[in-house]
Amino acid sequence: MTLLETDRLILRNWGEEDRAFFHHINSDETIMEFFPYRRSREDADAAMDFIRDGIEQNGFGFAAVELKETGDLIGFVGLHRPRGLSNLPEDAIEIGWRLAPEFWGKGYVTEAARAWLAHGFETLGLDEIVSFAVAGNERSTAVMRRIGMRHDAADDFDHPAVPDTHPGLKRHVLYRLSRAHWKARQA
Q1: Contact call for residues 153 and 132 (beta carbons, < 8 A)
Q2: By three-state DSSP, how is residue 119 classified?
Q3: DSSP 1
Q4: Is the pLDDT of residue 1 over 80?
Q5: How is residue 66 annotated by DSSP?
Q6: Which of 4, 11, 133, 175 is the S-S candidate for 63 at Cβ 3.0 to 4.6 Å?
Q7: DSSP H helical segments within the chain, as ranges?
Q8: Separation of alpha carbons 60 and 124, rounded Å
């Protein structure tokens, strides 16, 4: 199921043929640098099933990103309901991404994220979209700034799912984008 398209990308739901790639982007040391875990194949399959079911039910989620020109699967970008974060409203929607390193630095995440923001604000009628990352994850926070999100250090938090064994990964920065600010940027 295709969810969105951009000039260069197809954003779609996950298929059975994507399982090995999904495991790769959830277990590779470089890709998962800012995460305290690496998923086993079994855990990756369960996570992919959860995401795929959520996309089927909600019409959004961490969607597979495919290059139109080649059909190559490069990662995921999408909207998601974060769980277990008491610092966010219960109905918060997050935008997030993960790409294989050979596709970093080509503007794919920014392009896909902009499509998801438009969808979230125009189609889903969201009032706000948030994003968060480990404080030292400059690649992700640079994307957040490029897509117009704003940071307030008062919103930063220690992620409750990060174990104390990984203190350098606990502190997260939170970025926000309101529909009003997004609309003003479009004008």
Answers
A1: no
A2: helix
A3: -
A4: no
A5: E
A6: 11
A7: 19-25, 41-58, 108-118, 138-146, 179-186
A8: 10
